[in-house]
Amino acid sequence: PAVTATSWLVADLDSGAVLGGCGPHEYGVPASVQKLLLAATMLPRLDPWQEVTVTAEDLAIEPGSSAVGLAEGGRYRIETIWLGLLLKSGNEAANALARLGGGAGGQAGGIRAMNEQARLLGALQTHAVTPSGLDGPGQFTSAYDLALIFRACFADPAFRRYTATRTAEIPGQPALREKPFQIQNDNQLLYRYPGALGGKTGFTDLARHTYVGAAERNGRRLVVTVLGAEIPTQRGWQQGAALLDWGFGLRRDVAVGRLVRPGELTAASAAPTGTVPPSALAGGAGLHGAPAGAATPWAGIGPLLGFGAVLVAGGTVLITRRRRHAVRTSSAMTGQGG
Q1: Distance between CA atoms of residues 241 and 9, nearest Å
Q2: Where is substrate annotated to bind (predicted)?
Q3: Cα–Cα distance, 37 to 31 (Å, whole number)
């Protein structure tokens, strides 16, 4: 399909087979699809029925960025905060969940746990600096890594329920004179794509539009990941839908690689080639401590990291990535990290 995304990947959620992609191991900026890594990390750690208090630290988010509307001093069940995160992309919800799951280290401890989880999943091109996906120096991911992360999320029944929820109610806070209110899921795939299972939207000025979504058709479940999309004609979810249609149209035995299993790769494994975007490194450390602005000296592609190695070894197909110039449009989503 004719999409504007600078990189993307389509894979089978169940088998892990990679059906195809464009620049799947190119470094990109995640925006709010970063919240999927937060979910993969914190869902097993936090009791959804526990009632917790939202703090001023949680509400310290970039002015104008996406928020669900949690109140300082408000008491909410963790399940409610998850719904605020995954339906409305609440950045204050992300801060709260990272803090709560970070133990004594607080939010910083939560971010460290996210990066540890990324390495466990084999997402070697992912590094989190913020729990919400708001831009930060040294924060990046790849289309391939996002597929690994979403697949880990989707293995959790609670995540499957949250991401498929269309509406939810945020309870009122009588002590704070806050009334209850309803939120709706921002992922339009749920409403407009038959068989949609869920996903996550994202946008910042730096990342542009990012998207991860999943759907089922004829007993087959696929995931699509999109980075760096512009929307002159199609929004991120629409580009994801077009790629899902393409994937469902392929034979079931078509595959150009596979997604690695959690724990399959070690820190010593070869990592994919690519260049960390200077915009992601500005003012911070590079991948695994590389100096700011330096190219990352990875040599070659590990045989398990995706279809690049398979295609090169076969010697019959060469996939290249053509960078598209970013085009600013007036139809950009309001706010950051949405």
Answers
A1: 12
A2: 200
A3: 12
> How far apart are the C-alpha atoms of 181 and 226, rounded to whole Å?
31
Residue with token string 């280290």: 105
* Annotation marks residue 35 as catalytic: yes
Cα dihedral 141→147→149→151 (10° resolution): 180
Determine which one of 35, 66, 88, 142 is catalytic.
Answer: 35
pLDDT tens, residue by residue, 72-117: 999 999 999 999 999 999 999 999 999 999 999 999 999 999 999 9
Please report how many Cα atoms fall inside a 13 Å half-sphere around the Cα of residue 240, on the Cβ side. Answer: 33
Out of 7, 65, 89, 132, pick the active-site residue. 89
Question: Token pair of 21, please?
Answer: 């992609």
Sequential DSSP letters for 68-91: --PPTT-EEEHHHHHHHHHHH--H
Domain 7-314, CATH class in plain words = alpha beta
Domain locations along the chain = 7-314
Its sign, for the CA torsion 17, 126, 204, 151, is positive
For 20-54, the pLDDT digits (tens) are 999 999 999 999 999 999 999 999 999 999 999 99
| Tokens coding 75 | 């008491």
**Alpha carbons 118 and 33: distance in angstroms, whole number:** 14
DSSP string, 218-230: TTEEEEEEEEEE-
Under 8 Å CB-to-CB from 164, ≥6 apart: which residues? 190, 197, 198
Under a CB-based contact definition with an 8 Å cutoff, are residues 19 and 254 in contact? yes
Q: Is 132 assigned a catalytic role?
A: no
